[in-house]
Amino acid sequence: MTGLFSFASKQRVVASRILMAIVAGVFFCAVFSSLCLAVSSAAVTSPSDKGFLRIYFIDAEGGQATLFVTPEKQSLLIDTGWPGYDGRDANRIVSATKEAGISKIDYVLITHFHEDHVGGAPQLAARIPIGTFIDHGENRESTDKPTMQVWQAYQQLMSTRKYKHIVAKPGDALPILGMRATIVSADGAVLSDPLPGAGGENSSCKNAEQYPADQTENRRSVGTLITFGKLRILDLGDLTKDEEMQLMCPKNKLGKIDIYIVSHHGWVQSSSPALVYGIAPRVAIMDNGAKKGGTPSVWDIIEKSPGLENLWQLHFSEEGGPAHNVPAEFIANPEGPDAGNYLELTAQPDGSFEVFNSRTQKTQPYPAK
Ligand SMILES: [Zn+2]
User: How far apart are CA 133 and CA 107, in angstroms?
Assistant: First the structure.
């Protein structure tokens, strides 16, 4: 319930800011009447009204649930968090949809069939209408019992025939109004050709390690590159380093990225130097839990990345300790009882964006470059 409280208190802050702006505008008009029209029209067309992409990084306690809402109010949810916990993760996703002003999720993309990604799908579907599910096809990890359980529950959900279904392939563009979402990896395959504007040599490939082929669902992850105007956002689910090399070496098929949703919750199996230094993000956001994700060597790689302005975390990581965790203002959930705080990124087509921490109620702006 704390998540709901946080959403409400943010709305109060926004409302009080608007009220202050109006009061200031009225005073200004009384003193400088010739400029009054300009002030009132600026107040009416506040940039918070339209033209924004909103991204909610929902706390799934070390799982993933990231909601994108376009200016046209179309929505894409990448992953549904964990099963169980009385629908905790599904409830948090529904709270985010309310904050975003939507009553349906158009597309739910399941990166892969591990329980921290697809596990919450049945609980979510019981709480909010969903249009289309997108995934990589078949579960490839039939030896893992928890994976088989959530896969079967997902299959049962699909068998109701209430939903459209897309099996994603690298190079596909998802039919979402207001942003471009291109599939860059799925079911172990990656883009065969660089994306437009990408394809340069990646200098971080020279001394790169050789990574063994991952045998789990992680390397099957559906990876998506989202562009909104000039802004580029990368979400590779739990894609492993062996697959990252296919995308990034010797040619960088993705190009530079503004916002990197840190793969695999910041665990060591993902985020090779070839990926991170090749995409050179301005901001990285890690969807780790207190006890899940966040390997010290991954922090070191991300924080040395050229051009990185900030790394944000959904949780303080016990493994990272004070030496590796970022300063508290960049953490949604510090040590202590489970609070379910979220991060919200609001972007404009010119490439500028801001990150709001629902715990601190503070916003960090990032001007267009
Ligand atoms: Zn995961």
Answer: 6
